[in-house]
Amino acid sequence: xxxxxxxxxxxxxxxxxxxxxxxxxxxxxxxxxxxxxxxxxxxxxxxxxxxxxxxxxxxxxxxxxxxxxxxxxxxxxxxxxxxxxxxxxxxxxxxxxxxxxxxxxxxxxxxxxxxxxxxxxxxxxxxxxxxxxxxxxxxxxxxxxxxxxxxxxxx
Length: 155
Fold this sequence. Notes:
This protein has 7 helices and no strands. The chain has helices at 2-20, 26-33, 43-54, 60-63, 84-100, 104-109, 116-154. The longest helix has 39 residues, at 116-154.
């Protein structure tokens, strides 16, 4: 129950921060991305605040902890190198952000506005996620069957 309350409180604070920062307003976001036109640099403050908030978690004494305050173990991503998959995913994310004016969190939060464009964005985002999962599974199956066929030819 304690974890649920902390997660709810953190999500609520995050959502309020997005609303206060106007990240749920696509015009604000698109003006931030329009560096050669009507550039609105105020979202840099939001990014700076996010960085300053997260920075203590990377401080050595906190990284040296054996377990988190509210969990059994830390969930750290593996240290993988930058590759084509990462760069292409970041590019697709950036293009989607630039076209729609939303990233996933603010898009979901903006659903309460009732605007049809927001619902279309979230539906397209979910469809893109599902398409990725399907395509990734298809590629993995194709590679596995190709590897199996190659092993049969060698044996």
